[in-house]
Specification:
Blueprint (H helix, E strand, L loop, with lengths): L2 H4 L6 H6 L5 E5 L6 H16 L2 E6 L5 H5 L10 E2 L11 E6 L2 H12 L2 H9 L1 H9 L3 H16 L4 E5 L8 H13 L2 H11 L14 H11 L1 H13 L4 H16 L3 E7 L3 H16 L4 E9 L9 H14 L3 H30 L5 E5 L8 H12 L2
Parallel strand pairs: 1-5, 1-6, 2-4, 2-5, 6-7, 7-8
Antiparallel strand pairs: 3-4
Helix pairs in contact: 3-17, 5-8, 8-9, 8-13, 9-13, 10-12, 11-12, 14-16, 15-16
C-alpha cells in the first residue's frame, strides 16, 4: 500500500458524490496526471450510481473526454451522454468542452447591446485576447462554472481544470485578468474616452505626452490604437468582470464545493498538489481529498526487490531457468518502482496528514470508453 492509504484517512468519494449538499466537484492538479479521466469517471458514477443530474465541464483540447463517453464531439453547450446505465438511478450525464472565445463572446453579448458587441468583436486586440491571452482560458473556465451554477438545473457540476503549467493558474488567472482590466495603464487609456471621446493620440499633451510616447514605443502605434478602442468599448463591462470573478470565487469557498486534488506519484505532480493544498487552505476553500493516479503495486508484496534479484541470480547461475529469471527481475523492477512511489507520495501525506486520500492502480491501457471510466470510478470510490 502507498503512504496515502497508510498515513492519511481513506477518501470516501461515493459519500461526496451522493451528498445533495455538494453541487460542485473541482478536479485540479498539474497537467498530465489524469484530471480529465478522473473528472469523467466521477461524473459518470454520480449519474449511474447516485442518480444525480450531472454535467462535466472539460478544458481538455485533446477531446479524450468526448471519445471516452462515446460522443463524436463536445462544444460549449452541454450534450447528453446516451447509452449509460441510469435506468435504475434516474440520473443523467451531460458533457461539454470549454470554448473560451465563445464564452467570452457570450459574456460580451450578455452585457452590451448588439451594435457595441459587434464593435468589440471586430477589435483586433479583443480577437487576440479572447483566443490566446494568458489567463483567458482559466478566467473563462470560472465564467462558465458561474453560468452553469446560476442556471440551477444541475445536481452536480464536475470541473476538469485547465491543463496549465501550474495548477495554481486556475485560482490565480481570474484575479490577474481582473487586475489587468482594472489596471492603471488601462485607466489612463480610458481617460480620453471618458472626457469627450478624444483620440488616444490626443494624449500627447503636457500631462500625458511622455506616457503616450513611451507606451507607443513599447507596444507600437497600431496595437495601442487597438488597445485603446478595446478599453473604450468594454468600459461598461470592467466592473462586471471583477464582480463575477469574485462571485464565483465565493462559490468555490462554499460548502457546496469539493476540491479533489489529482496527482501521479511523481515528484513534480506531488509538489504541485502540495502547493495547491496549501493555497486552498489559505483561501479557506474546501479540500475534500487527494486522488493519486497510476500507482504501481506488486502482486506479491511479501517478496521485496532484493530477495527477487538474489533469487534471479541464483537461478541464472544454475542455468535452464531463463523464463523464471526474467519474471523475478521484472518483479524486482516493479517492487523498486513501488518503493519510489511510496516515498514520493509520503511528501504530501506528511505535509497534510489530515487530507483524505485514495490511490488508483495504474491501468494496462489508456481509458477510451465508458467501461474504462466505470473501472476508474470504482477504483477511486472503493471503500
Amino acid at each position: 500500500m502507498v503512504p496515502s492509504e497508510d498515513a492519511a484517512p481513506q477518501l470516501d468519494v461515493d459519500q461526496i458524490l451522493a451528498d445533495p449538499g455538494v453541487r460542485i466537484v473541482v478536479c485540479c492538479g498539474a497537467g498530465g496526471v489524469g484530471k480529465t479521466t478522473t473528472a469523467a469517471a466521477l461524473a459518470l458514477r454520480a449519474a449511474e450510481r447516485h442518480g444525480r443530474r450531472t454535467v462535466v465541464l472539460t478544458i481538455d483540447p485533446a477531446r479524450r473526454l468526448a471519445q471516452s463517453l462515446g460522443l463524436t464531439e463536445l462544444d460549449n453547450t452541454p450534450r447528453q451522454v446516451k447509452g449509460i446505465d441510469v435506468e435504475a438511478s434516474g440520473g443523467e450525464l451531460h458533457a461539454m468542452m470549454l470554448d473560451m472565445k465563445r464564452t467570452f463572446d457570450d459574456v460580451v453579448l450578455q452585457h452590451t447591446d448588439r451594435a457595441k458587441a459587434e464593435e468589440i468583436f471586430a477589435n483586433p486586440f479583443y480577437q487576440a485576447m479572447s483566443s490566446t491571452f494568458a489567463g483567458t482560458q482559466e478566467y473563462m473556465a470560472m465564467e462558465k462554472l458561474g453560468q452553469l451554477h446560476a442556471r440551477g438545473e444541475w445536481d452536480l457540476i464536475v470541473v476538469d481544470t485547465p491543463p496549465s503549467r501550474s495548477a495554481l493558474d486556475f485560482l490565480d488567472a481570474p484575479a490577474r485578468l481582473s487586475r489587468f482590466l482594472d489596471g492603471r495603464m488601462l485607466r489612463l487609456l480610458l481617460a480620453p474616452a471618458r472626457t469627450g471621446g478624444r483620440s488616444m493620440f490626443s494624449l500627447v499633451t503636457a500631462s500625458f505626452g511622455m506616457f503616450s510616447k513611451v507606451v507607443q514605443k513599447v507596444l507600437g502605434a497600431q496595437l495601442l490604437t487597438d488597445l485603446s478602442g478595446f478599453v473604450a468599448a468594454l468600459d461598461s463591462m470592467f466592473g462586471g468582470f471583477r464582480q463575477r470573478a469574485e462571485q464565483t470565487y465565493r462559490i468555490l469557498q462554499a460548502r457546496e464545493t469539493a476540491f479533489l486534488l489529482v496527482a501521479a506519484p511523481e515528484p513534480d505532480a506531488v509538489r504541485e498538489a502540495a502547493y495547491f493544498a496549501g493555497r486552498l487552505r489559505e483561501e479557506k476553500m474546501p479540500l475534500a481529498g487527494l486522488v493519486l493516479n497510476r500507482v504501481h503495486r506488486s502482486a506479491v508484496p511479501a517478496l521485496d526487490a532484493a530477495e527477487s534479484l538474489a533469487a534471479a541470480e541464483r537461478l541464472a547461475g544454475l542455468g535452464g531457468h531463463e523464463g523464471t529469471v526474467d519474471v523475478l527481475r521484472a518483479h524486482a523492477a516493479l517492487a523498486q518502482q513501488a518503493v519510489r512511489e511510496r516515498q514520493v507520495a509520503t511528501r504530501f501525506t506528511e505535509a497534510f496528514p489530515a487530507v483524505p486520500a485514495v490511490s488508483v492502480t495504474a491501468q494496462p491501457a489508456d481509458v477510451h470508453d465508458v467501461d474504462g471510466l466505470r473501472t476508474i470510478g470504482a477504483a477511486i470510490s472503493r471503500p
